[in-house]
Amino acid sequence: MSFHQWQTGTVVYPLLTSVLYDETEWEQPHSFHPAHFLDKDGKFVQRDAFMPFSAGRRACLGESLAKMELFIFFTTLLQQFRFTPPPGVSEDELDLSPRVGFTRNPAPHTLCAVPCV
Ligand code: HEM
Q: What are the pocket residues of ligand 1 if the criterion is a CB atom closer than 6 Å to any ligand atom?
């Protein structure tokens, strides 16, 4: 795209929060709720409203790479460790609210990673 096109074209910023927090699509749009993606038998369910990689012609080119990397990263950790809050802290006391900036990021947490034997 040339500089001229930038000046005269229309820049569009899709806000995916409108669909990712849509109260008509999600049972608990503001909670970490893995059951959003499970049927009554505990099997994975694809949800049309789950589109963190956007949609259409400008959708993320790295979607399949990112999904593969995240799967390998988290399954490797979960196969090797059991994660718990630090001693004296219950799971209910963990603050899962995001840190809001241009994007929403997880807050830092202190956790125990106990190796599985
Ligand atoms: C969890 C990880 C990732 C998320 C959630 C994500 C999400 C997104 C989103 C929302 C867009 C904008 C789509 C739009 O404008 O409608 C985008 C664009 C893009 N992403 Fe990703 N992305 C991720 C990882 C990656 C990786 C690993 C790569 C490459 C190795 C990548 C390459 C790109 C490229 C090249 C675009 C621009 C596509 C275009 O404008 O035509 N992304 N991504």
A: 14, 52-54, 58-62, 65-66
Cα–Cα distance measured from residue 86 to residue 98, given in angstroms and rounded to the nearest whole number? 20
**Residue 61 CA, ligand 1 centroid: distance in Å:** 6
Distance in Å, CA 52 to ligand 1 centroid: 9
Identify which has the larger pLDDT, 6 or 53. 53
Can you tell me which residue has the tokens 């593969």? 68
Domain contains 66: no
* 10 assigned to some structural domain: yes
- How many CA atoms, within 13 angstroms, populate the side-chain half-sphere of residue 60? 11
Residue whose token pair is 């074209």 = 9
Q: Answer whether residue 25 is part of any domain.
A: yes
User: Closest Cα partner for 34 from 78, 68, 76?
Assistant: 78
Could you read off the pLDDT of 35-77 as tens digits, one per residue? 999 999 999 999 999 999 999 888 999 999 999 999 999 999 9
| Atom of ligand 1 at shortest range from CA of 55 | 16
